[in-house]
Design brief:
The structure is a homohexamer. Chain A has about 170 residues and is an alpha+beta fold. Chain A is about 25% helix and about 30% strand. In chain A, strands 1-4-5-6-2 form a 5-stranded antiparallel β-sheet.
Chain lengths: ~170, ~170, ~170, ~170, ~170, ~170
């Protein structure tokens, strides 16, 4: 993982947040489910990662790789034939990395009832063709919602750095 | 295919158009492309069908099957690593069927340049558990855009019925 | 899309029609079907596109891309465990493009009963390594059946060009 | 494996060989190949098994399971973008089982050059809904080619039974 | 999520830890990687989830669903053609849930050099046929290594419960 | 296929057998099974080939292709939701090829009962970047078990060469 001290001078110009927003819709097929017709957690994680990667890539216009994912809970099951909505947004940027927030909702298409299933925070790093980290544009929160999410992301980042220190 | 004369009496109550709208985002992977790194037309058709089916299903809250697809042209190629946006909306409803309009745009994530790739019109039929066609709610266009799309769909339907007559 | 006026001088030599014929057989697996065990229309379209592309490629011996597909109807459902037969043949060639006819039949393997499911007409364009359209051999219909299909393809092409004019 | 002594009395009536013939065509995609762009042997085996299973199923009109496969060699490599032809035919039937012969050829679509890649002999057993072996129709070779293949299959069956004795 | 207070009386008898251990090996194919030939984080998460689910299921002999995953970092990239080793083990059990530890290593098959890629801790809940949580056997650590991992899992569980309290 | 006379002089140095051992675990998903929920033989063959290829590749540290597979029988069915264990080991090496032994066991995760399903012997050839066969390290059996398997492999190789002579 690259060191990510703030070095504004080497930065590319800031970019609009809306650019990075991604909406994905998936239909739960038999190959996504176990013997009871319930989705595998890993299938959801895989969609979260793709949505997050597209969001990060659309924001920085570079190839990205997943660096980390925060702890997440699956608070409701998702069943065969349901429709899954995945929404990904940039929350925060460091020198070469971006925190993307992803929210997953599942909908029973017969009733239209929606269940919040999971929320995830992923960090992606922008890389060049040799796989070396490269600077990303700075995310400048504008709306009240963006400012709130940005602030929360800053706190999460502090917790992450704190935890990593403890582990080493 | 079921006969679809208008019989308002047997209809379930009308429903809001926004319910049926679907936004899908897909990333073009190596398994979607040929030896030159260009997407297969059939992969795009497959995404169009899934987006259309979810849209129809979300509108009528029943299981649906694809009944037909109008002629469509692929006006731009889509390449490995690009992001594909699929947008599906209800345009028109008959007794047991719905016309769904789908628009496909492809985006080169490195530059952000978007290319309109294809537009498609599909007809889905709502079916019960024995596979028999069943009535769908009536689509009532509200916005100016919805009214324009509804009118165009009525014309396409006339052309379809005309064509089918000629073929028989 | 390339302009496709007839310019026989720049053509590569004509080729036998039988070369381009393709027969595909597919087994309907759980991942191809919805919650009622009925195949997705998009899966069938995807097989049609692959069969058509192989047929076009085998005829012109070049890489091809899907340019368009005519309107098509699914006249019978296909179920989990059934066997699907796809047959693709060259009907007509223009300067850089080929019309391929595809017929889909589905068979219940328990009874052997076959159902005609769909017929489709696709146009493929031959491309070089830079994605530029390149000439294809001329299709010369020989048998009575080929001549009949060739004539019908010429008419379909006129209708397509007519429609495109109207849209622009 | 079920005992397969001949008990003609319990047999269902004989059936035409042509019924069981299957022709499959597959396009080699990136997900079928290793880092050098060469197909995995297991992908070919998987297609051989599907073609054989469809052939056996079409012959006996029952669900079937793979019981065994004879030794086979891959005599030529198959590359990314090539077209693979798989042809499966019934050679012989015992009480509840069928020997299916499968031949695989690969074609470079750019040149049209075909390479014989592999030949395989598989035994399938017909089963009922509880997974118990059930009688299959008797295969009656008619053409000279069918008679030759039938005779060869009888010899292979003797060798198989001989080998199994040695192993026990 | 079920409440998981200790109620030894309702427990099924304890079971050997080795039962729950799982070793998976995966080959990185083109369909697992992005345009730079680097694996998607979500593919790795998906393998981690499957390995963890098999481990949990093998331990409790019941159907399981993923309840949560702790934060994890990808400390090294994995490339096309590499071999991925996934190792999953039970660390701890509560009344109806199990913590599974998963370790992922990637190996360049040309050199044999192995890279530790990620470590993950997942919680799975055992469910009955109606999706209701049911008791699992108690995990009794025996070896020094198992005792060490068990202790660490107890601490992680406290942190998780603490965090959840804060969020609510 | 390359000629494989022993020419110790051109050999690369011998290597430890344990290097080549591979353990794979797979979960049987709906997309692996037929309409009765029983796995396709071809799916098992595909896993056998991947496990064998990884084993051969890990032993010789080169790209490999499948050259042949000995006859094999499926002695027990494998069902949806079961766990499949595949174990692959080097048994013998010739100049440019390796015999890999693979054993497949299936486990019902609800009961823990394991069924030996199939055993297979595959030959892989090491190739360079142009697809030409290249020498592999010599496998030196050490343990009693390895010596027994090595001896059996030598006999199988003689039978294979004998058979091939007869066929030509």
């Amino acid at each position: 993982m690259p060191s990510e001290q703030n070095d504004p001078a080497s930065r590319v110009p800031p970019m609009d947040s809306a650019e990075g927003e991604v909406i994905m819709t998936e239909l739960v097929l038999p190959s996504h489910t176990n013997a009871l017709g319930t989705i595998f957690g890993g299938v959801v994680m895989s969609w979260i990662d793709i949505a997050g990667a597209i969001s990060a890539q659309r924001f920085c216009r570079k190839q990205v790789v997943t660096a980390s994912i925060d702890d997440m809970a699956f608070v409701a099951v998702i069943k065969l034939g349901w429709v899954v909505h995945i929404r990904a947004k940039v929350n925060y940027t460091a020198k070469t990395s971006m925190e993307i927030g992803v929210r997953v909702d599942a909908e029973d298409p017969k009733t239209g009832v929606k269940h919040h299933t999971a929320s995830a925070y992923l960090t992606f790093v922008a890389i060049d063709e040799n796989g070396k980290p490269i600077p990303v544009p700075k995310f400048l929160p504008k709306s009240a919602d963006e400012k709130r999410r940005h602030l929360a992301a800053v706190k999460r980042r502090e917790i992450r750095l704190e935890r990593r220190k403890k582990t080493n």
